[in-house]
Every structure is written in structure tokens, then in C-alpha cells.
């Protein structure tokens, strides 16, 4: 099938469109890159001649990231700018490299490194000479080459300059080498590619656009693929997108019916020659538009036919896909942003200091130049006879001018270039301390902490805001059934011999499930009373577990070993079904009409009459089943706030008791669901089911009618109890969050997950507490609604008479935000802000983001839910720009890359979601809890060490350099030096380098030693020994014989040091210099002790005191009534199951005549995927249907 004709776009080839068709969305460009959240924005000009199209094409400025490779598009070469063109559509032909190579599409190789062999030298030198000091020393070197003004030879400057540039270049090259190494690890992954009619293993980087790839279960997707076929019925496959959007629930993708017939037939796949015409590469994760032409027919493509790079294939044995976008064109890499050159605040301060010191140097030079002019005019005439000068040959003014430049050269050591060498050495040492820290080593996976850059260590000690992902960063992505409440009794608690509630210890033995078949090996439950109730035949307990076994959308299959494997769409359902399975109620299999379970060893088949699917408005799901005895029951589970309104009045007492239990569960950070059922009359159900069939066949208000029928039958429920599932936090998260909060560091959670889930984790981490004064929830759907909600929240926070600006005047942002620190002091109490992604999109607009930032900065905790990767980066940039605060972003998935690159410090978690976040990060480790040590130990020490090093360094160099200033008054301002040139050259880089390096690398804060350690002795006495060694060597006869012009002072040291007065002067000078410092420190410790002094005194006192008594187990208090509901589920799976499209053909079991009829479900995949956000319009709860 040929591509669309010339003059047509892929959208106009099949469908009539208006002449100008524009699609745009709110955009923001960060760091020169196109952000997530933009749509392809351009004008499609159709039915124009090539000449008119070339003249009239207008392309939106914001789409400049989509580059048109050189080559023709449908016979027309489109020039969109003088230098670069824009790719407005992509044409790919399957299994045809020659055809696709015409368009010069990018291959699948990725690059996160900054340099190549050819570009390293020019780019690195350009970056290094951006430092003011390097440019300053280059200018000094040029001045030293002028003999009329130079008192020092050129090597005194060029040697240190070349040394520092070389060391910095080596360090940068080493950092980039590891980036290349990480890139190679990804690029060299293996994938099965269809080449020459057979599958061959090929490296990822060699995969080309148009190739057909085979993926197997649990494999990462190598590129953006068009799904062709899979092992599942109807071409279905399941993918986990946690690395892209942070959601743990599985997503379903379905191949076109015409391609799903290809199956795994290699010969037919090799003959597949379909042509895909689609949108250009962009970073919109949830949108795709395209057209497949094959066998004289055309098929539209959407996002549900595409598998993106970064996804993981789950619950699917194999699938085949055609590469559409590869490498940098994939949506994953389009979201990665550009690697930025990060500098610390100390680097920026150093640039400012160098300018100030240079100004100070000019002042000294002017003073000495004026002194020289005065001296030459008044006294200099007396010396001209000895200097063989003729009268009037050299004026005093000109002499002062030359002297000015001479002193600029001589006094340049006030900022020696060795300062930057020493800083790089110190930073390198601090980086190795991080890499070698055993307390940041994760032994379970043998993952050490890694400082991937060596230039940002001291910035770790100045962090004010932390932006954290949730899934995989705070949590482990593991759901565990912890407790339940059945008929007013809590199961899952552990009690001691006195009946008091205690925490689980290693000595406590869990329930033994080994006697049961098909149990989950990793499941543990420590309350034996639940098993006792099951064995005693408690009907409520049996009904509770029966509900968990029947009310879900889980699929089951047996592996080759005969073990039962569950394919779960959400981890919550997996935890509940697995728990019921271990307690003897095993979900075995299902068809579109039946569910087969095993109840305490007895197989039972239930007729599945209807599934009332979950959505984010209903917040519940129900199933209607008929047991073998003919009883029809409705089983329902969902949010307690919703389900409790549907209960029969007779449940009042049980409702009160269960509410208390739910509050206790919520107070412990557990995710809760309420459980209820209803017995249905046979006649009533038939009438209701007939009305449901009519509603499904309706063409108008179909969804509203179905929702009304759901509301009608889900009433008068009988409460059974509630479940409590733990979304397992990573170890030490609570303690880490608490410690960082005590350090006055604010933590914002930015997640793509649902609001309820994010809030639940907020409570589990103690970021949100029931003691907070207020929690503001921003959920407006328009800019006006968001602005109004922000205004009301600010009124509640500041009071009704707040005089703070609403921030509508953009030009006043910075002035107002400068007052935020003052405003924070006026706010009393703890507040939290929770905002959804769709509301955040409006809040980030120019006239609203001032209000958002002001309110957010007043709150102790901020949680942003359902946010895109672009919005994560925008929030970070907002705080960086207007708060002028040092920020840190931490995450573990590819959806966190843009946030990590935008923050001052980026930290990657080496977790379960691939290596994208680690590759883009500045620091990486395996667990969130290590962040506490990284900031509060390594960051704090690095910052204080660097500050003390700078103070020490400037002190010794000012003392060293100002000697020349005072000596100028004694040498007639003649720019003569007190020291010889070798002493000036070696003073900083050899003689005094070790003591300052020792302090900068090894100095400790709270445990600062009051005595000399081995390191002190080595560096102090070693420096003195080096000085005398070099001194005697330079004054020796041997070196004079080799270099008589460079070392003319033979024997000076030997003769001078034999004089007793010399040693007396050295001793008196040392004592006179040290005694004031010792006296000052003694008085300061005694009168004004620092925090370090107080800690040292406390440690001494603790050694004398008896050990502290062991801490009692900490139990969390029961919170006030709040819902702990959180359910990671997606709407549409009920319709998928009842359609039967995800099930392999089996012999259907006998039915009872009440089986439901299969109403039209051809659009189940669209219904499944169009309701994946929290923005579903609410349905009236009182709209019911009377029977």
C-alpha cells in the first residue's frame, strides 16, 4: 500500500478535515527542551500545491523540538526554517530498511553523556573558562609575558593553570566515562529482532525503525512499538507503566484484529509490509494518532495499540511489535530533558568573591602605583646614575603605570589558582566517602551508594525543598493483607499473654499455611484466631472470604509446574485474593459467565450474572452471582464513605463498630475497603437485568441510565466488615521523613498515582497527620475554580482580613515572594496542600502560580497527584525560580527524569523500575532512607568543611600576599618581591597544601576532636618536612651545577639555619600567632559554647551515666474518623471480562438459565482507556430507577 499522495497528510488521506486544523495545548519549555504535556501543535495544510504549501505553512514555535530529518516527505521537501525543519508526520514501512533509511530516522542508541571524543576538549575548555578565576589567570599569564612589567616569570602562573585545568578535565572525563558506560549497558541489552525471516538476538542500539521485535513476559520494551500480535486472545497484552507514569496497576493493550491473526508465525510476520503514517516524535505519553495501510485497507491507530519504551510486559507469554519510534525519538527519551551543567552556590559565590578581590587588588595596585610615581619624582632622581638612565628618559607617571601592572602580577596570589585544584581534590574525597559509606550500602541487592558527580557535594548541606516520587521511592510496590474487621471483630492484631496489643516480633510465629494446597509462599499472618473462626464455621467469616474470592477482576492460570498463577490488574486485588486463597477460599478460574472457586477444599462454580464495574466516581465495584443452590447475591467492596451510605438501617450498631476499626486502620496508614453484600430476589433481578440490557442498547444518556441502575441495586446492603492492606513503605521512610522535617527541610510528594493512594501514603509516612489544623484540597477543573479554591485556602490560613495579593499581577511576583519568609513566621499551626494534576495545570498558569506557590510554601506538606513528568519539572522550576531555594528531586522511574534534571540535586533510586532515573541523577542509592545520611551527614560535613577550607585558604594567602604590599613601602614601590620565585610558585601547591586539604577532607563537625590524630601529624609534620627538603635541595651545590641561572642561591639555607636567632624568630612567630587563637577558642567554648561543644560535653556526661532504658514498642494512636480508602484499580476490566475477549476458549460449564445475555461490547477497549483520570464528572447519587 503506497503512502498518502503528495499534498496530503496522514490525517487528510482518509478523513475530510477543515482546511486549517490546529491542535495545541498549554506548553512550557524547560532548559530548551519540549516538556511533557504538549501536544503536537502545527497547522495541517491540505489540498495545496507544493508551492502554496511551502509559502503558507505556519508551524507553532513551541514545536521546535520535533526535527524533520533531511529527506523527502511524500515527494515534498519542507523547509520550516533556515537551519532546521520540523517533522510533522512519520512514515514507516515494516521490514523495509531501505525504504525507512530515506528519512534518516534516529536509531535506538541513547546518549545521556555530555561529551564525545571530538567535542570534549572544546566544550570542556569553554565550561572551565566560564569560571571567572580561570579567565583571570589567563589574563595574568598574558601580562607576565610582557618583560617591562613582569617581576615574575611566566611559569609561576602557567604551571598551576595547566595543572588545575588538566585535573578538572580528567575529573569531568571520568564522570562522563561512567555515563558512557551506563549508556552502553542499556544500549547493549539483547532483543529478538526479525531479520531475514528469522528471529535473531540483536543489541538494542542496532534496532531500527520498521523492525519487528519479539518480547517475552517480564521483559523491558526496547522502543515504541505498534503491537501486532500476542499470546493472549484477541491480541491483548498487559504492560506495567510504573516507570512512565508511576502507576502500579497494569494497562491493557490490544492489537488490530487484522494483525493479531499473524500470531507467532514467523513467515507471515516476515512478509508483513504494512505502512504506518503517524504523528511526529513528541512527549505526550497518553496520546498517539496514526494510520496503518495494509492489504488495500486502512486502520486507525491510537494509544491503545502502542507499547512504549520503558514499559514491562506482564502476564503475557509473548508479543510482536513493529518499531515506530526509536532511541531519542521515543516518548520516554523525549521526556528525559537535556543534561544541564549544574553549579553549586559556593561556585557562584566564588565567582563573586573573585570579582571583589580583583577590585581590591586594583585598589592596592593604584595605591602602590601612586606611591611609585611620588617616589620617582622626589627620590628616584638620586638613583638614575646607578641605573644608567638618561634625564627625562622615564617619567614618574609612566613609571607608576608600569608599576601598577607589575603589582597586579605580584599580588595575584591573593586568589591563587591552586584554590580550585584544592577544591576539586576535596570534592573528590567527599565523593569517595559517599561511595565507601557502608551505612548506605544495600546488602540485599549489593548496591552501594554512588556519587555520579563530584561537583555538588557541599550543595547537599543546603537543601531546603525535597521533591519525591511515591511509587518505588517511598513505597516498595508491594501490597500485603495486614488486617480485617469481620462482624465487628478485628483480625490481624497480635496480643501478649496479658491480652495487650503488641508489635510483631521475630519470636512470634505466623499462621502455618503449609498444610493447605495452592498457598502463597510469601504471605504471613500472625493472628491465629481467624483460622480458628474459619475452622469453627463462622458464617460471617466464610461469607467475608467468599466475597474476596468472587468480587474482583483477577485472571488465573496454571504454569508448567501446576502452580496457580494470578494475573492481577491492580496490586490491591492481588493482595485480597491471595489472602483469601491462603485461608482456604481459592479462586480457581473464570469464564465470561462463571467463576469457579474452592471453598475449604470443595470446588464450587458460581454463575456470573453481572459485574458493576469500578470507576473513580463510584469508588466501588460489585458482582452479582448465583450459587449452586440458586441464591442470587450481590457482593460489593469499595470506599467506606460511599458504601456506608448504601447500608440497610439494621446495620447501625455494626456500622459504628466497623467505623472505629477503619479509623484505627487508617491511623496506621493502611489502605481500607468496606465489604458488604445483599441477597437478591429472583424476580427483582430479572426485571433489573432487563432494564440494564435496555440501557446498554440505548443511544442517548446510556452512561447515566446505567449508573442509575447501579445505584438502584446497590442499596440496602448488609455490612460484613472491612479489609486493611499495607502499601509497604520502604524501610526507614517514616524515620527519614521525621528527621528531615526536624532539619526544616520541606518534602513535597509529586506522583502520577491517584489522590486517595497518595493521601494514604502521606498519612503512612507521617507527612499528613490528624493533628494538622487543616488540609486544603484543590480539585478545580477550570482556572477560575482553581483560583477561587486557592483564595479560600489562603483566607483560611491567613485569616479573613488577609492583605496578601492574589498574585494576578505577574510583574509583582518576585517582590511579593521576597516577603514569604516573613509571612511564614506569621502562620501558626500545621497545614497541608493536596492538588490534582488537572488543577495543577491551571495553577501553573502565569496569573495563578504566584498564589499556588505562596500557599504551598506556607504548608508543611504538599502532595501533587496525577501529575505528568512535565508538571513535576514545572513545580521544581517554580520553586527554584521564585523561592531562590536549593532543591533536591528523588525518584526511581523514567517519569522522574525531567524532575531530577531540573532540580539542583538529582537523586536516583536503584529500584525496580529500570535505570533511567539513575542514569540522569547526580547521586544514586537503593533505599529512600539513605537520603537522611546523604544530606544530614555527608551534605552537612561537606558544606562545613568547604566553608572552613575557604576561610583558612583566604587567610593564609592574604597573609602571604600582603607582605609584598608592606614591603613596597621599603623598596621604593619598585615591585620587587620578598620571596624568590620558586617559593611563590610552591607556596600554595606544595608547602601549605596538605594542612588545608586535611581539614577540608577529614574535618568533622559534631565530633570535632580536641587532640591531634594520626592524620594531623602526617599532614602537619609532613608539610614541614617537605618544605625543608625542597629548601635544602634548591640551595644545594648539585642543583646549582645543573641550573645555575635558575638556582643562584647556593648554600643560603645551610648557613642561615645555623644561626640561633633564626630559630628564635621562628619560635616566637609561631607562639605569637597561635596563642591568640588558643585563648579565643578557650574563652568561646567556656562562655559561648557551640552546638558541637554542647554535644561533646553531653557525650562525656553520658559515658558516666548508666545506659538508657530500652524503648517501649511504639504504638500509633487511633486517629479521628477518616477514610483510609485507596484502591489502585482501573475502570473497564469488568466489561473486558464479561466480553470474554481476554479468555482462551474452554468448555463452558452448565448454566442455570439466569446467565446474562451478551450485550454489545465492541467498544470495551475504548471504555477501558477513556476513564483513567480522576476528572470523571460526578454522577448524581439520588438518580435511581423505580421498578
From TrEMBL:
Keywords: ATP-binding, Lipid transport, Magnesium, Membrane, Metal-binding, Nucleotide-binding, Translocase, Transmembrane, Transmembrane helix, Transport
Keyword Nucleotide-binding set for record: yes
Residues annotated as binding ATP: 469-471, 573, 614, 637, 671, 751-753, 866, 872, 895-896
Listed GO MF terms: ATP binding; ATP hydrolysis activity; ATPase-coupled intramembrane lipid transporter activity; magnesium ion binding
Membrane-spanning parts: 353-375, 395-421, 949-970, 982-1002, 1014-1042, 1062-1083
Enzyme Commission numbers on file: 7.6.2.1
Subcellular location: Endomembrane system; Membrane
Membrane topology designation: Multi-pass membrane protein
Residue segments, region Disordered: 1100-1125, 1138-1158
Domain of life: Eukaryota
Composition bias type Basic residues, residue spans: 1100-1120
A Gene Ontology biological process term: Golgi organization
Domain P-type ATPase C-terminal: 918-1004
Entry cofactors: Mg(2+)
Binding site for Mg(2+): 469, 471, 892, 896
Protein known as: Phospholipid-transporting ATPase
Gene giving rise to this polypeptide: ATP8B4
